[in-house]
Design goal:
Helix content is about 65%, strand content about 0%.
């Protein structure tokens, strides 16, 4: 009796047909099974463990989306900005009611913008640092140190341009020290910048012998930044606007900004994507220090002095403005526009306290309460979306 047998793998196929492989699915070609290139020259299969070629860009783009284009988050950010504008309008109404003769005057509005300009430049740098997952408590002390160093008699003898350059270099250099201690020394940002706050303030006092240093004759160019007006506004206001514009472009339209969101949102994912997290952190603190140097030039222009008392508690105002503007303290989300609106709210509140003759201690209490409320609202909004 003949035994029935199934087809063999080695049996000949019909003329012109390829041999049949029982281990290969019927709809898969030999080229696909072997992973060899097809006629077009492109491989049909990839190594499963190979990461995508654009993983670096993908992580940066994903980090940027929460602050820009994702639906619910984008609507939340826009609503928060509208809320900040509404708060500003409400404060303006309070000012018109309580001080109708002095609040809405041109001179008072210029004073508000001038005060906001100095702290605002620092706020721009603080926004980058906090979005990147850090914090900088030394900004006020660095501004004081830069102003003192730039107004020593030795520095002033070289002219106003060297004074400006000195202030910028001192601020950026101190920021680099902060960044090095945090990124390569692996110190906690709070501790590293707190140590810099104490050291910078002490060095400023030592250099100035606790005395106020006046800008000498021949260096009036710095003072003219505050006295010269264009379209009714001092030049320093335009410098502040320029810093805000550059900061916005840097954060929203460059690779540096995307990496800042990535590092602040998830440092480990950013590292795995090929971003040098330590170097980027170093650059963030250097940028914050540079903003402190610019602020030092502006406060020298406003006060015609360099002093170790400049910038006292400016770190409080900058951090508060950034938090009120919607930037997460944990990093990964925030906007320059929100920070500036938060700054204007704080500046107007300070102006209203001064116009109504209220005590400075009351201002600090009010600012502290505003910070607590802003953080609680921020936490509640995050919990409601999870």
């Amino acid at each position: 009796m003949t035994e029935a047998r199934g087809p063999k793998a080695h049996e000949r196929s019909p003329a012109g047909a390829e041999p049949v492989d029982p281990a290969r699915p019927a709809d898969q070609t030999p080229a696909e099974a072997s992973g060899t290139p097809s006629a077009g020259g492109h491989p049909q299969a990839e190594t499963p463990d190979a990461p995508p070629a654009d993983e670096h860009l993908r992580v940066e783009s994903q980090a940027r989306k929460p602050a820009a284009s994702q639906g619910p988050l984008a609507r939340f950010g826009q609503a928060r900005h509208l809320g900040l504008v509404a708060a500003l309008v409400l404060l303006a109404i309070v000012g018109l009611i309580t001080q109708p003769d002095s609040f809405a005057t041109a001179s008072n509005l210029v004073n508000i913008l001038s005060l906001a300009s100095t702290i605002g430049v620092i706020t721009v740098g603080m926004t980058f640092v906090i979005i990147g997952g850090g914090i900088d408590l030394s900004v006020g002390a660095l501004m004081a140190l830069a102003s003192v160093w730039a107004t020593t008699l030795a520095t002033q003898s070289y002219g106003p341009f060297v004074m400006i350059l000195c202030a910028l270099l001192v601020g950026a250099g101190a920021g680099l020290v902060n960044g090095f201690l945090i990124s390569y020394g692996r110190m906690v940002p709070f501790i590293a910048t707190l140590a810099m706050l104490v050291a910078a303030r002490g060095l400023a006092q030592r250099m100035s012998d606790r005395k106020t240093q006046l800008i000498q004759q021949g260096n009036e160019l710095i003072v003219e930044l505050s006295t010269t007006r264009v379209l009714g506004l001092p030049v320093l206001v335009y410098i502040f606007a320029l810093v805000v514009a550059v900061g916005w472009v840097l954060l929203n339209r460059t690779t540096f900004g995307r990496r800042t969101y990535a590092v602040g949102g998830n440092p480990e994912a950013a590292r795995l994507a090929g971003i040098d997290v330590r170097r980027h952190t170093l650059l963030l603190y250097a940028l914050s220090g540079l903003c402190c140097g610019i602020a030092a030039v502006l406060i020298m222009a406003r006060t015609t002095t360099g002093s170790s008392t400049h910038g006292d508690l400016y770190e409080l105002d900058a951090i508060a403005a950034v938090i009120i503007g919607g930037t997460l303290l944990t990093g990964g989300r925030g906007t320059i526009i929100g920070s500036i609106l938060g700054l204007l709210i704080f500046t107007v509140i300070t102006n209203l306290f001064i116009l109504n003759g209220l005590n400075t201690s009351d201002q600090l209490i009010a600012k502290g309460l505003i910070i607590v409320v802003a953080v609680l609202l921020q936490r509640r909004s995050l919990e409601s979306r999870t």
